[in-house]
TrEMBL record:
<feature type="transmembrane region" description="Helical">
    <location>
        <begin position="165"/>
        <end position="184"/>
    </location>
</feature>
<dbReference type="InterPro" id="IPR043428">
    <property type="entry name" value="LivM-like"/>
</dbReference>
<feature type="transmembrane region" description="Helical">
    <location>
        <begin position="244"/>
        <end position="274"/>
    </location>
</feature>
<dbReference type="InterPro" id="IPR003439">
    <property type="entry name" value="ABC_transporter-like_ATP-bd"/>
</dbReference>
<feature type="transmembrane region" description="Helical">
    <location>
        <begin position="286"/>
        <end position="310"/>
    </location>
</feature>
<keyword id="KW-0812">Transmembrane</keyword>
<dbReference type="InterPro" id="IPR027417">
    <property type="entry name" value="P-loop_NTPase"/>
</dbReference>
<keyword id="KW-1003">Cell membrane</keyword>
<keyword id="KW-0067">ATP-binding</keyword>
<protein>
    <submittedName>
        <fullName>Branched-chain amino acid ABC transporter ATP-binding protein/permease</fullName>
    </submittedName>
</protein>
<dbReference type="InterPro" id="IPR001851">
    <property type="entry name" value="ABC_transp_permease"/>
</dbReference>
<keyword id="KW-0472">Membrane</keyword>
<feature type="transmembrane region" description="Helical">
    <location>
        <begin position="214"/>
        <end position="232"/>
    </location>
</feature>
<feature type="transmembrane region" description="Helical">
    <location>
        <begin position="89"/>
        <end position="109"/>
    </location>
</feature>
<feature type="transmembrane region" description="Helical">
    <location>
        <begin position="14"/>
        <end position="35"/>
    </location>
</feature>
<dbReference type="GO" id="GO:0005524">
    <property type="term" value="F:ATP binding"/>
</dbReference>
<dbReference type="Pfam" id="PF00005">
    <property type="entry name" value="ABC_tran"/>
</dbReference>
Length: 605
């Protein structure tokens, strides 16, 4: 049984939905009646709209419900084009998809620029104004009476009959789902998932939060627009009622019930709601209540919706089957560190105040390639603030920060990451629902070479980037000794391994400078050994390593150069020997007397 399960799991995951699509395609030819065929058509139209919502809500974490307005834009663009004589469905799809994309961009740019809940509010407003906009252009749209007299669609001059139209809807849905799937399984999809959980982590990995969210929202508009075109040509009549607020609730309920963080969740949710609503003869009266009930059940009973439930059952079955068959992960041999090109990082007179608190005052440091530069000092002395300034999270009040002579102060954090500066966080920032391997591969985003377009269409640059990123992630995992855990959920790792995972992620993009913020705390002896040897190998390979660390003995063993911060200023600078023999540093600021240090009690925490 276990062996059979593993064999089935070895089948590429995309084959299952494709098989379902193939079955749907042939159903009318096997005698499916008109009523059921229509339900499938409406389900697929709803699924396309939900798919767009899932992209922004489930992947990018942005509650943006404007899909119904984009659906309306697609439908009316197609209807009006049709009345102007454009009956060709392919041209209409282009026009309707384009119209929806424009609505997505127009509402997304200000909504996202303003931040916080603005996009949710903008898109909510967008749904409410649909009937008013249609009334304003009553002459063209028919206002509240709707747009009637749409001619049946054609394809390259040929009339499309009912059955062919069904096949067309199914085929278009398969293609759109496949393209969006390509996006979500690409590095851009992983970037969205990271972004949803931690914009700070995302930007430290070179992801532009604004651009990624806008991409998800705007791309999500296109399936909704396509759905609108398909709907307009299905009934040959559209009216504002079809795009009302209650329908927006249905879309949201389908997304939550099916599982917003899954593209197939869109299909599951749409099917449940479409067929569920059909069973309720009173739907028109109680539509909002029914949608609300699905929303509650989906949100409360199982987080992640039905698709999340299925996914977790499959994962459990995988683990059980592997245990029964006796498959153990094979640890990879420790990887060699390739030659690295570090860069000289220099801060000159950097200052930062938070209100009246002068956290940093005229700090000048230099970190050379092929050297470990340590920054130490008591709690609150400004070490993390300095790292945050270097990595672009805080703006400098004064002073400059240069990378190989190029100023990087003032750049946003994702640009600093792309310039070659990578970092770890004091509290490991581990994205949920990613495997260890995916979390490390996500680190490659700073040097991502495949565009969203190339990823969706799987152009050669996508395959090349994927090969390279996978190899880089495998290498980074092997460097920190986590290859055996590659398929485990990243957030299930114990603290020590989480720190090593952060280091691996920060190395995946082959940065020039790596900022390690207290990576040693919480590591056991074996893990500390792995880390120490890794830092040495990185340094020997030419990387610039900046180490913020409380473990003084580790700093003495690893550092080539040490800066001691006190109350936001550099109070000493020198080699480990110089720092160790500086009594003021040892006693006054690190609280280590000559005797405790000799006894090895150098960790001042
Ligand atoms: N975002 C912030 N807003 C206000 N004050 C801050 C902020 N970040 C840091 N500070 C203040 O700046 C000073 C330096 O803090 P910082 O975290 O850089 O010290 P640290 O040396 O890294 O300390 P630790 O070793 O405890 O991490 C502290 O007084 C801290 O309270």
């Amino acid at each position: 049984m276990a062996a059979l399960w593993l064999k089935l799991r070895a089948v590429p995951g995309w084959l299952w939905p494709l098989a379902i699509g193939a079955v749907l395609l042939v159903l009318p030819f096997l005698g499916l009646n008109y009523g059921a065929t229509r339900q499938i058509e409406l389900t697929l139209i709803l699924a396309l709209i939900v798919l767009g919502l899932n992209l922004s809500l489930g992947y990018a974490g942005e509650l943006a419900m404007g899909q119904v307005a984009m659906y309306a834009a697609g439908a009316y663009a197609a209807g009006l084009a049709n009345k102007a004589g454009v009956t060709d469905i392919w041209l209409q799809l282009l026009i309707g998809g384009g119209a929806a994309l424009i609505v997505g961009l127009i509402s997304g740019i200000p909504g996202l620029r303003l931040g916080s809940w603005s996009l949710a509010m903008t898109s909510f407003f967008l749904i409410l104004i649909v009937p008013d906009v249609l009334s304003i252009f009553k002459e063209e749209t028919g206002g509240r009476n709707g747009l009637a007299g749409i001619m049946p669609a054609t394809s390259f001059g040929q009339m499309i009959d009912g059955r062919t139209y069904y096949v067309l809807i199914v085929a278009i849905a398969i293609v759109v789902f496949a393209l969006i799937r390509n996006l979500v399984v690409s590095d851009h999809g992983t970037a969205l998932r990271v972004l949803k959980q931690s914009p700070v982590l995302a930007s430290s990995m070179g992801i532009s939060v604004f651009r990624a969210k806008l991409t998800a929202y705007a791309i999500g508009a296109v399936p909704a627009g396509i759905a609108g075109v398909l709907f307009a040509n299905l009934d040959l009549f559209i009216s504002p009622e079809a795009f009302a607020f209650s329908f927006a609730m249905t879309v949201l309920a389908a997304s939550i019930f099916g599982g917003s963080a899954s593209i197939y969740g869109a299909l599951i949710g749409a099917a449940v709601l479409q067929f569920g609503m059909n069973q309720s003869t009173n739907f028109s009266k109680f539509g909002l209540i029914i949608s609300g009930a699905f929303l509650l059940i989906g949100g409360v009973a199982f987080t992640g919706g039905l698709s999340g439930l299925v996914r977790s059952l499959v994962r459990k079955a995988d683990i059980a089957a592997k245990r029964r068959v006796g498959i153990e992960p094979v640890p990879a041999a420790p990887a060699d560190v390739e030659r690295l090109d570090g860069a000289l990082l220099r801060t000159d007179g950097v200052s930062k105040a938070f209100g009246g608190n002068q956290a940093l005052s005229k700090v000048s440091i230099e970190a050379a390639p092929g050297a470990v530069t340590a920054i130490i000092g008591p709690n609150g002395s400004g070490k993390t603030t300095l790292l945050n300034m270097i990595s672009g999270f805080y703006r400098t009040d004064a002073g400059t920060i240069e990378l190989d002579g190029r100023p990087i102060q003032g750049l946003s954090s994702y640009r600093v990451a792309r310039a070659g500066v990578s970092r770890t966080f004091q509290t490991p920032n581990i994205p949920e629902k990613l495997t260890v391997f995916e979390a490390v591969q996500a680190g490659c985003y700073a040097t991502e070479r495949a565009s969203v377009f190339a990823s969706v269409l799987r152009l050669p640059s996508f395959w090349r980037a994927r090969r390279e990123n996978r190899a880089a992630a495998e290498r980074a995992l092997a460097l920190v000794g986590l290859s055996a855990q590659r398929d485990e959920p990243a957030d299930s790792l114990p603290l020590g391994n989480r720190r090593l995972l952060e280091v691996a992620r920060s190395l995946a993009a082959s940065p020039q400078v790596v900022l390690l913020d207290e990576v040693a705390s919480g590591l056991d002896e074996d893990e500390l050994e792995v880390l120490e040897s890794l830092v040495r190998r990185l340094r020997d390979a030419g990387m610039t390593v900046i180490l913020v660390e409380h473990n003084f003995q580790l700093v003495l063993r690893l550092a080539d150069d040490i800066y001691v911060l006190a109350q936001g200023a550099v109070m000493a600078h020198g080699t480990p020997e110089q720092i160790e023999s500086n009594p003021r540093v040892m006693e006054e600021y690190l609280g280590v007397t000559a005797e405790t240090n000799a006894a090895g009690g150098g960790d001042h925490e």
